[in-house]
């Protein structure tokens, strides 16, 4: 097979279908950018879960004297010193609990409240005796929250057991929902890209049906006839894949490092690094190259039977 002939046929095909080729490049670029973005979003959520779930605490809030009337669990009155001693001892016996178990008294709770909500209008109406004592428990495995909740939720002197992980689950649920939406949109763009590729290849094959007919008559193989069309589609897909890589790199830089600078504004979030982005780029380029080539191969079956 003469490479010069194949390359000349590719150039002819691209010039004849320039508009449709441009549409293929754009649709492939957008769909692969969404694909790469979905992969990075999933990795970001996984990274944040690992980072934050390791830091969350289970809080066991104890009854105070103000809870007796409003909270049925505290109807017997405020927690006693003996009850606090028993709760701490039982916590330290549990294998799922990391030691030491931290105790927060009302003064410490009031101080933390003022640090977090001191600017709110309600802060001036809160006094230390209204705050609740609590045990702050860190688990070896955050998934075992129910073990602690079951053991202490109904005990005398315990007002409630709260898992901070439930707050994070709402955030991660939102991010996972955005990821699913991105994947759905990627699938839609991928279908559009495949339809454009198939139509572009068929139009190109139809416009050159005389040349391909002559090639069949002189004994050219099916692979030899298909190669220019497949290479055209692969070339357009390659350009789209490279453009998708540029979009991913630009989005990572703009959102996290420059522009919005989320890394500086949200320094509590463990953002994925450049290594996570760069490792996805070869996959994006490979899909951009192979997907149009395979689609073109199936689209050309009909024309080789004529």
Automatic annotation (TrEMBL):
Biological-process GO terms, alphabetical: cell division
Assigned keywords, A-Z: Cell cycle, Cell division, Cell membrane, Membrane, Transmembrane, Transmembrane helix
GO CC term, one of those recorded: plasma membrane
Compartments it resides in: Cell membrane
Limits of the ABC3 transporter permease C-terminal domain: 183-302
Domain spans labelled FtsX extracellular: 56-161
Transmembrane segments: 21-41, 180-201, 233-256, 276-300
Topology term for the membrane: Multi-pass membrane protein
Predominant location category: membrane
Similarity remark: Belongs to the ABC-4 integral membrane protein family. FtsX subfamily.
Quaternary state and interactors: Forms a membrane-associated complex with FtsE.
Function according to Swiss-Prot or TrEMBL: Part of the ABC transporter FtsEX involved in cellular division.
Protein name: Cell division protein FtsX
Organism: Streptomyces pratensis (strain ATCC 33331 / IAF-45CD)
